Structure formats: C-alpha cells, structure tokens
Amino acid sequence: MSSGPPPDASAEDLAGDLSAATISKKQLKKDARKAEKAEKAAQRQQQQQPQADADDPFAANYGDVPVEEIQSKTISGRVWTEIADLDDAAAGRSVIIRGAAQAIRPVSKKMAFVVLRQSMCTVQCVLVASVDAGVSTQMVRFATSLSKESIVDIEGVVSLPKEPLKATTQQVEIQVRKIYCINRATPTLPINLEDASRSEAEFEKAEQAGEKLVRVGQDTRLNYRAIDLRTPSNQAIFRIQCQVENKFREFLLSKNFVGIHSPKLIAGSSEGGAAVFKLQYNGQPACLAQSPQLYKQMAICGGFERVFEVGPVFRAENSNTHRHLCEFVGLDAEMEIKEHYFEVCDIIDGLFVAIFKHLNENCKKELETINKQYPFEPLKYLEKTLKLTYEEGIQMLKEAGTEIEPMGDLNTEAEKKLGRLVKEKYGTEFFILYRYPLAVRPFYTMPCYDNPAYSNSFDVFIRGEEIISGAQRIHTPELLTKRATECGIDASTIASYIESFSILLHLILISIYGHHCSYGAPPHGGFGVGLERVVMLFCALNNIRKTSLFPRDPQRLVP
C-alpha cells in the first residue's frame, strides 16, 4: 500500500518523516565534539562542586555519595517511598525518596526548591536553612549546585502547601532534612526536557507573543532517545503500550489460546515478495522472519487448536513513511475454524473492544498526559464491531467520488477516506473490511467458495488506517503448493510447512527420514497486528516512531 505523512503532521514530524531520522557522518562528528565538550565541562564542574564542609555541623546531611557506597555494599533496611504515593494522607510523615532533579530553583542563600521526578510523578522539595531542621546554608548551596537530571536521594517530612502546586503532579511538599547526590548528570544535556515536552499549542502561543521556543526535532529525539523517553508523554505512551500487550495476552488466554514462540531465523520467505532481510546462517542462505505465520499454522497442525505469539517482526521495505517500521512487535494469533472464518473476526471484535475499554477505564492518567502534549479525540467504536465487505467499501468510495483500481488494494488515501465515510455513516472509527480480492493477499489465503477471485480474508481499521490483516488459511498441500508458485515462492524452501498439511507421503521426508508419515490439518485462520501501530492510532499520534522505543526504519540502526 502506498503511504505518506498524515495531513495533520506537525512541523517536527514532517521534518523528519521522509528522511526517517537519517544520521549523517557530519552530524555524528558534531555530536561527538559536543559530547566531548560536555564531558570536560562536567569534570570541571565536579571539581568545583561545593562538598560537605568539615566545619558545618550538618555536613553529614548532604553531599555526593562515593561510588563504593552504592556498589551493593550493604542492605540498610531503610524504607523507600514512591513519589506517586505522596498524598495528603502522608502529611507529617518522614520519607526517603529517590528521583531525577527535574528543576532546581534557588530563592536565597537560605532557601531553595528542588523538583524531583520519578517516572511520571513529580514532587516539590523545599530546603530552608534552619538549626532545628538540620539544614545549613552550605547544604542549600550544595542543592543549588546540582545539575538537572542528576539522581538524588532526599529524606524529609511531608507537608501540605498553602496554595495548590501547578508545576508538580503531587500536591504535597517535602521539607528536606537530608539530600545526597547519587550520580551527577552532565551540566549541558543535548535535550532540554522542558523543550521536548511542549505541545504544538504552546509553540503557537509563544509565536503569537513574539517568543521563540526551542523545538526538539524527531532526529534529535531519536538520537538521544534515553533522554527523550523521560518526557511525561513518552512515559505514558509506553505504559499504554504495555497495557495493550498485557490485555492481548490476557484476553486470548481467557479464550483458551496457548502462547508460543517461533524462530526468527528461517530458510525461506514467510510472506512472499522481496521485502525480506537476507543473511548467512552457518554457510546457508537464511532470512529474518517477516511474520510467525507458517509456524503458527504448524502449531495448529500440532494439535494446539488456538495459539498466539508476541514477538519481533522484520520487514525489509524501503518505506520512509509515518506508519512503517523495518522491525516491530507483532501480536499474532491463529485458531481452528469450525464453520466460518467469521469466528476469527469475532475473536478480534471481543479482543479490541476489551482493549479499548481497559485503556479508557484504567489508563486515564496516561491518556490525559499524552493529550496534554499531543491532543486527540477519544476513539469511537461500537460494542459490536461493524463488518463491511470489500465491495461495500469500494462502493462507498465510488459514491464519494473516489475511483479504485478494479480488484486492487486500497492505498493510504483511500483507507483514510473510507475511514471518514464509515465514521460519518456508522459512528465508528473501528471496523472490519472483509472478502478482499485474492490477488492482493498472501499465498496461504483461502479463496472464497463462490468466487475464487475473492478470498476469505479481512483487514481491520482504526481511524482510517489498517492495523490488522487476517484470513482463513489454505490447509490442503496441493492448493498451498499451487498458490506459493503463483506468488513466486520457491516451494522447496517451505516444504516442511506444506508437509504439515498433507495426508500423503512427501518425497522430501522419504529422502531425509526414510519412513512414512501421515499428516492432517483442520481448517484454520488467524491475524497479525503491529503493537506500535495500535498504540499510535488509539492515541491518534502522527508518527509510529513515537510508539517504538528504539525505532528501526530504512535509515536508522542506532541507538
């Protein structure tokens, strides 16, 4: 399918979309020089850092912790408190917390604020020089000398502020009694988290006011991904992703599916076509698996009845678009069919409605956090998922003035338009389109009983973009061999797969094992979906690189 950047893409993403985060040699050298300067600056700063003053009676309450003290030297028995657990009920309690110094604000020689961040939560810590509190002016100076993102331990007493706090997630303060730096961050970071966390609306507001804010581009974000991941929206995105994966497993397990793990090094193409990564495997030509398809089906032949897999998928497509990756996390399932491939569609219906409900009900905080930086409308879906035939979808497009190549696949523009038409007519952004032309489906797809030009296949769409491709599979060896040849696949490379479906003796087994084997396979079908694409579309994000922890596209192999 052809594809391109979405019409609502921000300048940040359009700038890096087609280039797909290309890293030039010149840029690498520039980054290396920058890192070297930062390292030297850090060393100078370290030498100049105010350490605990021997004459300070409270010197033991602050300072940089020596490395040997954090090399698993002892187990102190201290109880640590999560920043997320700091609320009104904790007022008056003494706590120990650890986090990254997100902000440091000196007020005077005797007072300073340090905002500590742990995951998605932040809390304001207050230092006030006082003999009763055990806080000296030297301790305040030490706190203000810390660089942003340094890892810090703080011990103090929880208190309630007089006014609501706008800059932190937790509506309490910590009156600091002790502060120790575990690891200092370099003073000059390549990414400022405040810049990387801004929404498009903030940039527009600043521009109208005549201010110029720093925009962190996609290339820079991905080059320094370990820092970029600290932003609230990224923390939320990957927690959402975790929930989608967990719900996928949980739902299918409840439907008697068995989790499996298939090999990713294989002898032949999984899907057909040229989009495969080739390599040498102990002197033999091999490929990285384009999907676990063949092995899912062989597991069905092995008597498992229903299986699923969560694992990496590799596609050597030179697609520099907003929605394609060369490596992604595949959520795959396969199951026996008793009568009709709609049994597979019903599993998909129940699965995704369960996922959507779970996210909306249990991930409100994460969704709100993403919405602050990347505003989006909640996904519209029906309790019973809408199913339309391919021909019905084509007819809707024709009536709206869009012509589609006869018996051809839908391109990106057509998918998006169909998504808009379905939303207007049926009030849903999640639907199934089934009975696709056989010519646009993989070789193992079962033809329709009443018209072999069509297939027992389907695609599933969210917000006008395909997320799932599935079908009933061919389970007879003769038809499998015929279809593989028609699709340009060397049947000898998938011989063991074809053999799994045969009740006949195959010559290759005679030559290898020298004995007769009998095989059989029940009717079956399944589907595959990219985890990153599900999260991208549920949250209406405009680039799949936002939902891939360390993306691999045609141009990017690091970090």
From TrEMBL:
Keyword Aminoacyl-tRNA synthetase: yes
Residue stretches of biased makeup (Low complexity): 43-52
Keyword Ribosomal protein on entry: no
GO cellular component term of the entry, any: cytosol
Protein location: Cytoplasm
Keywords linked to the UniProt accession: Aminoacyl-tRNA synthetase, ATP-binding, Cytoplasm, Ligase, Nucleotide-binding, Protein biosynthesis
Chain intervals for the UniProt region annotation (Disordered): 1-61
Residue ranges that the Swiss-Prot or TrEMBL entry lists as coiled coil: none
GO process annotations (BP): aspartyl-tRNA aminoacylation
One Pfam family recorded for the sequence: tRNA-synt_2
Reactions catalysed, as given in the entry: tRNA(Asp) + L-aspartate + ATP = L-aspartyl-tRNA(Asp) + AMP + diphosphate
Record-annotated Aminoacyl-transfer RNA synthetases class-II family profile domain positions: 238-559
Comp. bias (Basic and acidic residues): 29-42
PROSITE patterns for the chain: AA_TRNA_LIGASE_II
InterPro entries the record matches: Aa-tRNA-synt_II, aa-tRNA-synth_II, aa-tRNA-synth_II/BPL/LPL, Asp-tRNA_synthase_2, Asp/Asn-tRNA-synth_IIb, NA-bd_OB-fold
Gene Ontology MF, one: RNA binding
Enzyme Commission designation: 6.1.1.12
HAMAP family xref list: Asp_tRNA_synth_type2 (MF_02075)
Family: Belongs to the class-II aminoacyl-tRNA synthetase family. Type 2 subfamily.
UniProt-listed NCBIfam families: aspS_nondisc (TIGR00458), PRK05159.1 (NF003483)
Name of the molecule in the record: aspartate--tRNA ligase
Organism: Oryza brachyantha (malo sina)
